[in-house]
């Protein structure tokens, strides 16, 4: 009788542990992506993108592809600054981009020529 009670207790504990691991496996990270254009609407390829966690100052980088797109994944939910830099263009910065758990945030940029105001 005592052995049976112990066996049942162990099985219940194993089931409960499995349920908790399923809950903790839910996605909490998100991503920030966007497209970089110039003042005429043409894509800007090869731009450096820096995404900074505003709370910890931890940063991640990406480069815009041949279509002007960038994406940074596996970001924790918090507020981010997104900075874009490309030769011939002014540096651009956007702060206060709030990413929620499992969120998909789009931050597009229109790069301005260095010679423009």
Q: Mind explaining what this structure looks like?
A:
The structure is a single chain. The N and C termini lie far apart (85 Å). The strands form two sheets. Strands 1, 4, 7 and 8 form a four-stranded mixed sheet that branches. This protein is an alpha/beta fold. It has a domain at 30-110: Sandwich (Immunoglobulin-like). The protein contains one helix and eight strands; from the N terminus they run αββββββββ. The longest helix has 23 residues, at 2-24. The model has no long low-confidence stretch (mean pLDDT 88).
Unreliable segments of 5+ consecutive residues: none
Largest sheet: 4 strands, mixed
What distance lies between the first and last C-alpha atoms, to the nearest angstrom? 85 Å
Count the strands?
A: 8
- CATH domain class name of one domain: Mainly Beta
The radius of gyration is 23 Å
**Overall pLDDT level:** 88
| CATH topology annotation of one domain | Immunoglobulin-like
User: Which strand-content bin applies to the residues?
Assistant: 35-45%
CATH superfamily of one domain: Immunoglobulins
- Derived structural class: alpha/beta
Number of helices in the DSSP assignment: 1
N-to-C series of helices and strands = HEEEEEEEE
* The CATH architecture of one domain: Sandwich
Shape: rod-shaped
Give the helix proportion (percent range): 10-25%
């Amino acid at each position: 009788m005592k052995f049976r009670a112990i066996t049942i207790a162990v099985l219940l504990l194993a089931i409960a542990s499995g349920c908790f691991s399923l809950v903790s496996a839910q996605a909490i990270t998100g991503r920030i992506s966007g497209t970089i254009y110039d003042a005429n609407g043409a894509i800007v390829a090869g731009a450096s993108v820096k995404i900074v966690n505003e709370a910890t100052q931890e940063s991640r980088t990406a480069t815009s592809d041949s279509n002007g797109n960038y994406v940074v994944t596996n970001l924790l939910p918090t507020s981010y600054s997104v900075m874009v830099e490309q030769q011939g263009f002014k540096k651009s910065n956007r702060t206060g981009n709030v990413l929620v758990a499992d969120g998909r945030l789009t931050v597009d940029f229109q790069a301005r020529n260095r010679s423009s105001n």
